[in-house]
């Protein structure tokens, strides 16, 4: 990582690599640690020696001089089975860099509102694609609000290898298993209780039997395959594009209504551990 400062008035040196960086003293003062250093050493020092590698020091100086901005959101989809936010990847700090940045922010007491909270937003931006890594790291840092949000994207825990989950505290692991079990049972319950013609309402005189058979066949097949991330409504929506439903206005209307009711019910199922506790 590189660092450049065009209007410098001070210098810091990486003792490990003997590399000097030109910096702005005022930018350093946003760190409590640097403020204390300047209070102790006064204004006479021209170079401040730090026992950091040049790469770590460059990362720290970038945080101080150019605090990170939140990722740029491209789209927010609240109607998905698991609501997602899509971010511009060019504005998201890569996941491998974030642990070091959090470490530096903590070590040098950087502002929580302008640095640490924004780093948390970048961490959460990786949750849809890499939920386990985000969840484990957030837990290790005590960032429970991020861990709670990341947990909704986790695959069934049985899908992960031991090496992938061994860093999760046993209590947290158990709560994730409980959450996923609750989700699967609730989705299965809603699926098996949602009829396409409830109490005969909206029944089609011409295709009622065939449509009911199609719906029941689809839901019975799906019920045994449900996992925590299964989009039950999305899977059942396929029935609307099969005969006789596709060609019959009444059957199609009933199918879409049943699918939307499933979608509504499934969105109310707890997605995070804190929702499970409430």
From TrEMBL:
**InterPro entries noted in UniProt:** SKP1/BTB/POZ_sf (IPR011333)
Tell me which Gene3D superfamilies the record gives: Potassium Channel Kv1.1, Chain A
What is this protein called in UniProt? BTB domain-containing protein
**Classification lineage:** Eukaryota, Fungi, Dikarya, Basidiomycota, Agaricomycotina
